[in-house]
Design a protein that fits this description.
The chain is of the alpha/beta class and about 625 residues long. It contains 22 helices and 26 strands. About 35% of the residues lie in helices and about 25% in strands. The strands form four sheets. A nine-stranded mixed β-sheet has the order 3-4-2-5-1-11-10-12-16, covered by helices on one side. The longest helix has 21 residues. 6-O-phosphono-alpha-D-glucopyranose binds next to α11.
Length: about 625
């Protein structure tokens, strides 16, 4: 997600800001910007700041993907001398395209205030309407900009920057880490956070803040954590931390033993581990901001009208790899909730057969990158045949998202590990939200039922955290399977795509032969391969076919297979037919894959490590496949 840096007490702030933004590049970004309070007249290379009595805000912003920090450096070469408080940002778009106008920092109407933000403001639409009605002019499509104008209102009434920020934070809902500066208080930065990271630093007459430790390591090892709902006032050489209610608190000092590379991985051994641990946030962020006041679903980016959707009589979902498995989970959910036929196809096959589509078909392309050639060509073919095209992507304004009639973004943040983890979970959630939205529009489920499922989805992040915490149990099972060479992953109902994903992870990370199969189909052939030494991993979380699943497991066990089952906590009946159990917290069956896949990611990860393979760099694989 977005990267944040801020410093006060540094007379030449530009090199520090740019250096820190470089250190945050691993987070991924599509645009970047910096703003500073400078002496004298204002200058804004991006958009309209005005001159003011006590110095002015100077700001530059640049779009252009991973070139944007380099572009920023060119623009910043003309920065005036005499820097006071300074902030910088790399943006990973969520609300609004990755353009220079939407890049942070954002300013208020006077141009004397600038703010940067990481996270999502859920009630931005209603705040925007209120501010516009009060005469404010907002110049970007971001959720962030409303915060600048809210602070402006209070400062116009005489409040200080910390007071005005505090009162703004009482008005916003959602997740944020922010830093704000004002030309009226040249050496002050006000920072706060809720649910997204922010760290503070002190060094020789300076005070710093950043979204992440790597940005600070080059400057100081005196690093402090800011907790949820705390506000920090940074002045040269000093930090003052209070709760949002104004009660003073002592920030916790962190012991930094990492070098920059380790810090970029957040202290994890590799990006895959880090990204697996980001899964609760990926799911929570994908769900944020999707419900109106009455609890009904609102999909802002969707663009397809209710009438378009009411006309739909068939859904095709096309994707590759882990995205294809997410689509398979969605098929069960959408058919059950919406009662329209859903066909899921591997993109590279879909585009070369003669799929039957027309204006009443909704074709959903699912792609983390939004650039995978097979998927983009498949949705292009669907559009040519007259279908309505919706894209589920993790990259705002990816080429697929731009070409589609509508889009639904997963908000997993950039994924660096080649084998998809957090994006896969976010895709399942986004596709199921789409299913519930269709059910709402088509009236195939009562509002109470949709509400009940959404409520169950909203507790998924906590359940994923619980599942992740059991990595040690998975490691124990993995250590007993180091000699195994043949794996079958079996599931039924939504457990089937989970089995496919578990097998794919094991192939791509541990280079072990693994077949994913619908358990009921086993007796039609593959059971001939089961013998002592074969490992069968079964998905036995409760779903309508759970009992049948256990019968299938009994069949392979009686033929000598070693059975590992993913089972709901306390399910002794499943445990009775297994050699090893990977326990997961239970949830509503149609959303259970979001939890069930977690121990399978961990199993593949651990076996990869035990076989000496680097999970971040699986052989022969690429993160984004732009060839056929
Ligand atoms: C590659 C990656 C997978 C990913 C697949 C589809 O194979 O290694 O992790 O699932 O592409 O990518 P997409 O960006 O379209 O979701």
């Amino acid at each position: 997600m977005c990267g944040i840096i801020g410093v006060t007490g540094e007379a030449d702030a530009v090199p520090l800001l740019l250096g820190a933004l470089h250190q945050l590049e691993y987070r991924g970004y599509d645009s970047a910007g910096i703003a500073m309070v400078v002496d004298g007249e204002s200058a804004d290379a991006g958009a309209g700041a005005g001159p003011g009595p006590a110095g002015a805000i100077w700001r530059v912003r640049a779009a252009g993907g991973t070139d944007s920090v380099a572009k920023l450096a060119e623009l910043a070469a003309d920065a005036p001398q005499g820097h006071h408080a300074a902030i910088g940002h790399t943006r990973w778009a969520t609300h609004g395209s990755p353009t220079a106008e939407n890049a942070h920092p954002h300013t208020d109407c006077t141009g004397r205030l600038a703010i940067i933000h990481n996270g999502i403001i859920e009630n931005h639409a209603e705040l925007r309407a209120e501010l516009e009605a009060a005469g404010h002019t907002l110049t970007s499509a971001t959720d962030t900009e409303v915060m600048a104008h809210l602070i402006e209102q209070d400062m116009a009434g005489g409040a200080s920057l910390p007071e005005a920020t505090r009162s703004m934070l009482r008005r916003v809902r959602g997740a944020f880490s922010i830093a704000a500066i004002s030309a009226d208080e040249p050496d002050t930065i006000v920072a706060a956070r809720r649910s997204t990271p922010l760290v503070l630093g002190l060094h020789d007459g300076m005070a710093l803040l950043a979204s992440d430790i790597p940005a600070l390591i080059g400057h100081t090892r005196r690093v402090f954590a800011l907790a949820d709902d705390e506000l920090a006032v940074l002045r040269p050489g000093s930090l003052e931390v209070t709760t949002l209610d104004g009660v003073a608190v002592e920030p916790e000092q962190l012991t930094i033993t990492w070098d920059v590379e380790a810090a970029q991985k957040g202290g994890f051994a590799d990006f895959m581990s880090k990204e697996m641990h980001e899964q609760p946030d990926a799911v929570a962020d994908t769900l944020l901001d999707r419900r109106g006041r009455g609890g009904e679903l609102i999909l802002d980016e969707m663009r397809l009208s209710a009438d378009d959707l009411r006309a739909i009589d068939k859904v095709f979902i096309v994707a590759c790899g882990s995205s294809y498995h997410a689509a398979l989970v969605a098929k069960y959910a959408i058919e059950h909730w919406v009662k329209v036929p859903v066909e899921v196809d591997i993109a590279s096959e879909f585009r070369y057969r003669d799929p039957v589509l027309n204006g009443r078909t909704l074709c959903v392309g699912v792609s983390q990158s939004g650039e995978t050639l097979d998927t983009s060509e498949a949705v292009r073919e669907a559009a040519r045949l007259g279908a309505k095209v919706l894209v589920v992507s993790n990259v705002v304004d990816s080429s697929m998202a731009r070409a589609a009639d509508g889009v639904l973004y997963t908000r997993a943040g950039p994924e660096i590990g080649v084998a998809s983890t957090k994006c896969h979970l976010a895709q399942i959630v986004a596709l199921e939200v789409l299913g519930l939205y269709l059910a709402q529009i088509l009236g195939t489920q009562p509002a109470s039922k949709i509400n009940e499922i959404l409520n169950a989805m909203e507790v998924l992040p906590g359940l994923i955290t619980e599942a992740l915490a059991r990595a040690g149990d998975v490691d124990d099972v993995a250590s007993k399977l180091t000699d195994a060479r043949d794996f079958f992953f079996l599931g039924r109902h939504v457990g089937y795509p989970v089995a496919l994903e578990g097998a794919l992870k094991l192939k791509e990370l541990a280079y072990l032969r693994a077949e994913g199969y619908p358990a009921g189909e086993l007796k039609h052939g593959p059971i001939a391969l089961i013998e002592p030494g074969t490992v069968v991993v079964g998905i036995a979380t409760r779903n309508p076919l759970w009992e049948k699943m256990l019968s299938n497991v009994a069949e392979v066990r009686s033929r000598g297979a070693t059975v590992v089952l993913v089972a709901d906590d306390g399910d002794e009946e499943s445990a009775a037919v297994a050699d090893h159990v990977l326990w997961v917290p239970p949830t509503y069956p149609l959303i259970a894959p979001v939890i069930g896949v977690v121990p399978l990611q961990q199993l593949a990860y651990r076996l990869a490590r035990l076989h000496g393979h680097d999970p971040d760099r699986p052989r022969n694989l690429a993160k984004t496949v732009t060839v056929e």
